[in-house]
From TrEMBL:
It comes from the Eukaryota. Residues 14-26 have a biased composition (Basic residues). One of its GO terms (biological process) is lysine biosynthetic process via diaminopimelate. It holds the Pfam family Orn_Arg_deC_N. Residues 25-268 form the Orn/DAP/Arg decarboxylase 2 N-terminal domain. Its cofactor is pyridoxal 5'-phosphate. InterPro entries: Ala_racemase/Decarboxylase_C, DAP_deCOOHase_LysA, De-COase2_CS, De-COase2_N, Orn/DAP/Arg_de-COase, PLP-binding_barrel. The keyword Iron does not apply. GO terms for molecular function: diaminopimelate decarboxylase activity. The modification N6-(pyridoxal phosphate)lysine is found at residue 48. This is Diaminopimelate decarboxylase. Keywords: Decarboxylase, Lyase, Pyridoxal phosphate. The keyword Lyase applies. It comes from Geodia barretti (Barrett's horny sponge).
Length: 408
């Protein structure tokens, strides 16, 4: 059904608050036995999946911390009400400015990904007269069995520290003024559909924890990352309860606090992209529908060949036959196709389509390519909705640019 008060502008995103809340609560048993060290929460939502302040606030009110990878995400998390000590600052390329901001804010953990980053963080911490709590991110050389562009734990990927180098770098961290080593971190990729890659990566982390403790170094927590997949089409990812049981087994074996960083799983099914048909045409042997949403609104199909369900908002009359249809946007790129060969009923200009499961890596990857303003975003609660990001207008779009005086 259409939420009360809905008026359909050009393409618009809608996020369902209740669905985010329901899915978040399913994670709680996975970490309830793991007491948070220094008030750090055990579920840290990965803000890169969807950085809207209303979404982050929803998760904060449910008890989530956050995984951040930039100074901008740090500011968003704080503004949404997540305390700094409940933040994990991840990512392989933290700038000195970002480190200083995070240290001054009191971020709860830095996931360090290289010797150079460790030294830079130590320098920044000493300059502020403080200590940075550090977990070294392990690259376990495990194939996540996912799309190549979102696999992050193989040898040669830009992420993490080779597992064979962890012991020496942990010793260096323990000796560095300004650094407090607290544990290890690992994240091998996104949209995983089997537990086996997680198990392989976590076994390597367990071995490293045992080796570090045998050498006399304390390891109080492990950050197990995220990556559990969702069903877009015919994927069969394991249930979150099975993943939670794996986390608990790992935690019990080595007696640590386990931090997990779900992102896509929490928010992907809660998002819908609404788009209106502009024109219907024949493209060779197939019907092609041009809509007002495009690859700049939803990059995943163009970038990853990702599949999203597409269906008419108005339910077709009983018995209406469908035709295989390409759903394409107006951007001047052949890649600007939201879906190919979709069985859709007869459509006409003005009809509204819903693109499903866009709550993760949708708006965060949007751009203004072809000088197309960013879409509006609303949050649905029951049969009511609220604007959570207004549609960008042309004045705002053009206001970003400056023309030098010598071109006047």
């Amino acid at each position: 059904s259409t939420p009360r008060g809905f008026r359909s502008p050009p393409s618009r995103r809608a996020s369902a608050r209740r669905r985010i809340a329901t899915r978040t609560r399913r994670w709680l048993p996975a970490t309830r036995r793991s007491p948070p060290p220094r008030r750090m929460r055990c579920i840290c939502y990965s803000i890169k999946a969807n950085d809207n302040l209303a979404v982050i606030r929803t998760l904060a009110r449910l008890g989530s911390g956050a995984d951040i990878i930039s100074g901008g995400e740090l500011r968003r998390a704080l503004q949404a009400g997540i305390a700094a000590e409940q933040l994990v600052f991840a990512g392989p390329g933290k700038t000195r400015e970002e480190m200083e901001l995070a240290l001054a804010s009191g971020v709860g953990q830095f996931n360090v990904e290289s010797p150079a980053e460790l030294e830079a963080l130590a320098s920044a911490a000493r300059a502020q007269g403080t200590q940075a709590p550090v977990a070294l991110r392990v690259n376990p050389d495990v194939d996540a069995e996912t799309h190549d562009k979102i696999a992050t734990g193989r040898r040669g990927d830009k992420f993490g520290i080779d597992d064979g180098d962890i012991a020496a770098l942990y010793a260096r961290a323990a000796a560095l003024e300004g650094i407090e080593p607290v544990g290890l971190a690992v994240h091998i990729g996104s949209q995983l559909s089997r537990l086996a890659p997680f198990e392989a990566a976590y076994e390597r982390v367990i071995d490293l924890v045992e080796d570090l403790r045998a050498a006399g170094y304390p390891v109080e927590r492990i950050n197990l990352g995220g990556g559990l997949g969702v069903r877009y089409r015919d994927e069969t990812p394991p249930p979150v309860e099975a993943y939670g049981a794996l986390v608990e087994r790992v935690r019990q074996r080595i007696g640590v606090t386990a931090i997990i960083e779900p992102g896509r799983w929490l928010v992907a099914p809660a998002g819908v992209l609404l788009t209106r048909v502009i024109a219907v045409k024949q493209a060779g042997e197939r019907r092609c529908v041009i809509v007002d949403a495009a690859m700049n609104d939803l990059m995943r199909p163009a970038l990853y060949d990702a599949w999203h369900a597409i269906e008419p908002v108005a339910e077709p009359a009983p018995g209406v036959s469908t035709v295989e249809t390409d759903v394409a946007g107006p951007v001047c790129e052949s890649a600007d196709v939201l879906g190919r060969e979709r069985p859709l009923p007869p459509l006409a200009a003005g009809d509204l389509l819903a693109v499903r499961d866009v709550g993760a890596y949708g708006s965060v990857m949007a751009s203004t390519y072809n000088s197309r303003p960013l879409a509006a975003e609303v949050m649905v609660r029951g049969d009511a909705l609220a604007s959570i990001r207004p549609r960008q207008d042309y004045e705002t779009l053009l206001a970003r640019d400056l023309v030098p005086s010598w071109l006047a």
